[in-house]
Here is the input.
Amino acid sequence: MKPLHYVSVLFLLALTSCSTVRVATDYDKDVNFTNYHSFAFYKPGIDKAQISDLDKKRILRAIEANLLSKGMIKSETPDLLISIFTKERERVDVYNDNFGWGWGWGWGWNPWWFGGNWGNTVSRTTEGTLYIDLIDAKTKELIWQGIGTSGLVTHGTVDQRIERINKIVSEIMAKYPPGTEKK
Here is the structure.
């Protein structure tokens, strides 16, 4: 394989690793989730989320669309209150590119073809975590939490940002209610 192909494979690997969403959920096993049919957004919790108002709106629209598609209704007297929380961190990945063949670095006339040693590649991405909390409206207790972590789209078009947020929210909400997630 030519050296350029190795670089292409590493770039593709880095690109696809940023596009995945890692999802985890937790819930109260004593709750009967079939009793919840309506929802509303919990403004005090949402106001604390440290993201732009535009991204908050995008997230809330995506959550609403997902819950409506599950047969729930938005209500002034809801069964569930929806809150969100976000975290952001820089992710640093170091790729060790010390591979090659032959008898060592520089053996022969061209180090690219005979045992080339390319060193390390460092990749920095901003990774965001979105928490979606579902709270029982009567008891005010947390009954379900979905967590999605993914690389953030900090550049690109508005449509790309919306698409990314929709994907993250959809993958989290696919796990609600517990036991119905697609395998």
